[in-house]
Write a structure and sequence with these properties.
heterodimer; A: 87 residues; mainly alpha; two-stranded antiparallel ribbon; elongated; B: 471 residues; 3 domains; globular
């Protein structure tokens, strides 16, 4: 196991925080802005036969969430390798 | 447990109460013999049955209607045609006459309701709700889309957003879900495991709205307008089950949409195979799938409750010298006792149970989530802060829950199901304020919090300790 220096620890944690904040921002936009506040406006657009606002609430947002989680797992696991602290 | 009892009773023809206890034996068999790990493996098998039985009918329906076996994509155009049909039905004179009759019934009940109190009032309110549902038109006057596609506005939008918030944050705070990830051996695998588990859950939820659209389409196309003495086969098959009935309100011999009285929307999932014209075997599969889902949830819950009490309460608080064997025995005894209580409650068939599930999300959101987040991300958080925050969040949510459900309390017109929306911020606030007012946590605790941030720095060992009762 690699022992991390204080600097490395800080870098690692910052990377984690930044990634989390970005992903949460996307979560907020998809959940509350697209599927909530602007759903009525988006419903005027048709996507795959669906009113788009409805689509985002029913399926689109779930797809985005799953991609976000996969992305987090992938990026963090990669970061672990970079720092030599994978288990 | 109620679900298990329902399926067992319908499937084998046992009495509902007996069904609950037959289900209980199944749950105990799965959980007493092993621990969290074996339950997880049983659940893998249960998931496979569940997802297959769930997908087969709706994939087949999609293929038959659109020749594309991907219901998640094809139901978009189905929504459009459902919407058009709903508007046509809303404006049909026969339909309007039927609705007027229901409205008259509802008004009569409303008149009786004025002088009623206590249990009689509850009963009449429920009756009126059912009658009002029948009197509701599937599309508003002059609307271009049916009710289901209307975007909520104003207060309804607030409630929609508040409920989604409670459900999401609540899920993140549900103890029986969190403990699942203890079964992974490393941080890396925990991340991957979260990814995969959510993907599999996604498959299920991705399909659920399509189910509703296909069932609705079947009601619109082959039930509405059919003659009362020549109903579609699936109606005749499922009507005796009591999930819905057909009442020829207008006595014109033709089924109107308002004649279709839905008592439990469970029929959507259970009757879809037969609506699709699939053999009964598939219905059996769907029931097995439902059973699998109910059993596995119950297993997980039971383990969490019994491990929680035995380890956190008995071992950490009451008797610190308890041996591993003693703790293990206590866990198993608690498991049986909890399961018995659950089955006993289920036999009472309280209508409030479905509501209580939603409350659990709000309560979990308001009591656990903020403390979990602060505990990991904010090193200054301490024990008094966490305790105060949890009590405040839980207390406020419980107050609003009981107040709005039974005593007409209303803040911003929020529905009871979204009661956690106030408790979450209050919990955050109280935890922060009380933590700052009291002494910071010891260096050892702060070091522990820091170590959790990095894989492989003694963290794996620490995490195991808190779940010792499992091994």
């Amino acid at each position: 196991m690699a022992i991390l220096t204080e600097d490395q620890k800080r870098d690692y944690w910052r990377y984690n925080l930044r990634l989390t904040v970005i992903l949460l921002a996307i979560w907020f936009v998809v959940t509350y802005v697209l599927s909530g506040f602007f759903a009525a406006a988006l419903n005027k657009v048709t996507f795959l036969g669906f009113p788009f606002g409805y689509y985002m609430a029913a399926q689109g947002s779930i797809i985005v969430f799953v991609i976000e989680i996969a992305l987090y797992a992938k990026l963090m696991n990669k970061k672990d390798l970079e720092f030599g602290i994978q288990e | 447990m109620t679900g298990v009892g329902l399926i067992v009773s319908r499937f084998i023809g046992l009495d509902f109460k007996v069904g609950c206890f037959v289900g209980l034996i199944g749950v105990l068999f799965c959980s007493v013999l092993g621990g969290m790990k074996s339950v997880t493996w049983t659940q893998v098998a249960q998931y496979i049955i569940l997802i297959l039985s769930y997908l087969v009918p709706v994939v087949y329906l999609s293929f038959r209607l659109f020749t594309v076996p991907v219901p998640q994509l094809t139901y978009g155009s189905l929504l459009q045609s459902n919407s058009t049909k709903a508007i046509a039905i809303a404006n049909d004179p026969q339909e309007q006459a039927t609705r007027a009759l229901w409205k008259a019934d509802s008004d009569a009940v409303a008149e009786k309701l004025k002088g009623a109190t206590g249990a009689a009032k509850e009963k009449l309110t429920a009756e009126k709700k059912q009658l009002d549902a029948q009197a509701t038109s599937p599309a508003k006057e002059g609307a271009t889309v049916e009710n289901y596609l209307q975007v909520p506005v104003g207060n309804k939008m607030w409630n929609f957003l508040a409920l989604t918030f409670c459900l999401m944050v609540g899920t993140a705070g549900l103890p029986h879900i969190l403990t699942r990830y203890y079964t992974t051996p490393s941080v890396r695998e925990a991340r991957t495991s979260v990814g995969w588990s959510l993907f599999f859950i996604f498959l299920l939820y991705f399909t659920a709205p399509a189910y509703a659209a296909f069932a609705r389409n079947a009601v619109f196309t082959n039930l509405v307008g059919s003659s009362v003495d020549k109903l579609p086969a699936w109606v005749n098959l499922w009507q005796p089950a009591g999930l819905f009935t057909i009442v020829d309100k207008l006595k014109d011999g033709v089924v109107q949409l308002a004649d279709f009285v839905v008592k439990s929307s469970d029929f959507v999932v259970l009757a879809t195979p037969e609506i699709a014209g699939l053999p009964f075997v598939i219905t059996g599969l769907v029931m097995a799938g439902g059973l699998a889902a109910a059993l596995s949830t119950a297993d997980g819950l039971l383990l969490t409750i019994s491990n929680g009490i035995s380890h956190d309460l008995y071992y950490n608080v009451i008797n610190k010298n308890a041996t591993l064997t003693k703790r293990l025995i206590i866990t198993k005894v608690l498991l049986v006792v909890t399961a018995l209580i659950a089955a006993w409650v289920a036999t009472a068939r309280l209508g409030i149970i479905v509501e209580m599930v939603a409350w659990a999300f709000s309560l979990a959101a308001a009591s656990f989530f903020p403390v979990l987040v602060l505990g990991i991300w904010w090193k200054r958080a301490n024990r008094p802060g966490a305790v105060a925050g949890m009590l405040a969040g839980f207390g406020l949510t419980l107050y609003y829950l009981i107040g709005s459900r039974f005593f007409g309390v209303s803040w911003f017109g929020t529905n009871t199901v979204a009661c956690g929306v106030f408790g979450v911020p209050v919990n955050f606030l109280v935890t922060i304020v009380v933590s700052l007012m009291t002494a910071p946590p010891s260096q050892a605790v702060q070091d522990l919090v820091t170590s959790v941030r990095y894989p492989k720095s003694g963290q794996a060992v620490q995490a195991r300790v808190s779940f010792g009762a499992e091994s």
